[in-house]
Amino acid sequence: MTGKNYLAMDFGASTGRGIVGSFDGKRLTLREVHRFQNYFVPVGGNYYWDAFRLFHEILLAVTKAGHAEGTAGLYSIGIDTWGTDYGLLDENGQLLGNCRCMRGADGTYVEMVNREASPEYLFERTGIQTIYGNTLFQIYERVHCQDPAIREAKHLLMLPDLLAYFLTGEKHHEYTMATTSMMYHPLQRDWDRELLRKLKLPDHIFSDILMPAQTSFPLLPQILKECDARELRYVPVGTHDTASAVAAVPLRQREAFCSSGTWSLLGVETKQPVLTREVYEANFSNEGTVDGGIRLLKNIMGMWIVQQFMKEWEQEGQALSWDEVVGQASRIEAFRSFIAVEDPVFYQAGHMIQRVQEYCRKTNQPVPVSVGELSRCVYESLAMQYRKTFETLEHILGYRLEALRIVGGGCRNKMLNQFAANALKRPVYAGPVECACVGNILVQAMENGEIGSFGQLREAAADSFPVETYEPADMDLWDEGYEKYKAVMRAGAACKDYSD
Questions:
Q1: pTM > 0.90: yes or no
Q2: Which residues are tagged catalytic?
Q3: Per-residue pLDDT averaged across 199-206, rounded?
Q4: Which one, 127, 244, 261, 278, has the greatest CB density within 10 A?
Q5: What single-letter DSSP state applies at residue 345?
Q6: Residue 49 in contact with residue 113, Cβ under 8 Å?
Q7: Cα–Cα distance for residue pair 270/292, rounded to 1 Å
Q8: For 442-461, what is each residue's pLDDT tens digit?
Q9: Please, what are the domains in the chain?
């Protein structure tokens, strides 16, 4: 017997989708009803998201889903997005300008914050690794620049919470997204108001924090009318897309996960935050899980670099599919060039080919030029960074990790999956692809009582979707490549500026 229908709105940095799922008590069935491109727009030195267009895509998806499901209709909707970005509301609940994108950050305000609160102090308070676009640094910039929007703001809502507010009129924060902000205290389990006051940031704009699957809210009557729906509820799921994705990973004991997309988020689950010196020095983060635990992970620059390549190639009249890019990479000799995918020089948008080439030039490597050379350089560098992160995790945890499970859109890249298995010398299990939507929908089903526990949620995900296995190969060759990679990393650390 088919259960209720649930709509997952999954927003990525380059694409978004609306997927309907129904759970029959054992397996989840998915049906895509809406897909669209996503992008940020540069204006006046900043990057912006069009929050109202994103909301419009939600309304389109709800309308399409309602028509597709007919009399069965929809029971609820859940939203997940990338982390750290947000919107500001005035005293009337109106959005104060378009939402800024974290990719506009260049590190200037990280340095300014660190004069008042050292990186060690920030980590001790929040458990979050330093990334230029962390919400804390974005808010500090606006206060420092006396931005009228931050002065007038009465509420700050992280992006999925903002979109939910447009649907319901409710102003709340969801736990997994709040943990990405670098303003949440994982031991106090609340906003770190002491830290906010120390940095002279407004603390009155932060609302209460909700846990996933604990409650739901009816959509506003005008929204129901707009979408030709009789009744529909919003469920706070794991609104950070990685939290939703990892919820659906069929993890076993001593296995790590990698949510592969624009970012590669590689880590393990723990019950409590790990705030040791070793974790800080490794630049790991403690982010929330759907069941209230912690994802101890590193945010690695994932497909972002190749995504930027593809935009440049398209502007030059060479529009390529992902399969075409991988195909050209597969024909290039192994270990020709490496880059440090974590280097901040690759964080911002634009001129990515030039940045990669300059890094290789300054580290005395062959300079990649062709599509295959550039993409192979990134894919092999990613696999080597996975190995470095994997080894660091094992040292922190004090035990051997037996496998890596890769989920998300990046797990379609069979070449990178095999590279990861070879580099790690461990099996790699790939799938499901739409893992964020799977976790999103199953959390909605849990809130509705169709799933009784987090363990059952994972069993449902495992029973519903196939997983592909990649066994390690050419391990001696990849060990040699890893030594070359480490030498390049040492050379790169001596170089300060790889771009003009």
A1: yes
A2: 241
A3: 97
A4: 244
A5: G
A6: no
A7: 10
A8: 999 999 999 999 999 999 99
A9: 5-234 (3.30.420.40), 249-431+467-500 (3.30.420.40)
